[in-house]
Design goal:
With 107 residues, the protein is of the alpha+beta class. It contains 3 helices and 4 strands. The mean pLDDT is 91.
Length: 107
Amino acid sequence: MLIQTRTILVQKDKVDLVLERFSKESPMDSMEGLIDKTVMVNRKKQEHEEVVVMIRWRSVEDWKNWEKSDVHIQGHRQNRGKPAPEYIISTTVNMYEVKAVKEGLNP
């Protein structure tokens, strides 16, 4: 399993704009190997808000297929050169290859 996280720092009271973008349907939703996409908000930050998008893929290969897909590449081409919205302070992307999962006794 591969997990991609995208941590987005957002100006106070603008988090709903980011939630809208990552919660709506997208071409990724129908990609083979996508397990799920989770959108989380940490509202305990004082000077800004934090959104974490966690995307789980069945395998590294499934993620690579998404990255190489025409729809993904076209989406990046359309946004090339466009500045990020002013309410986004920063974005950090991380990739994790899952090595072990321990399920609870009463899932």
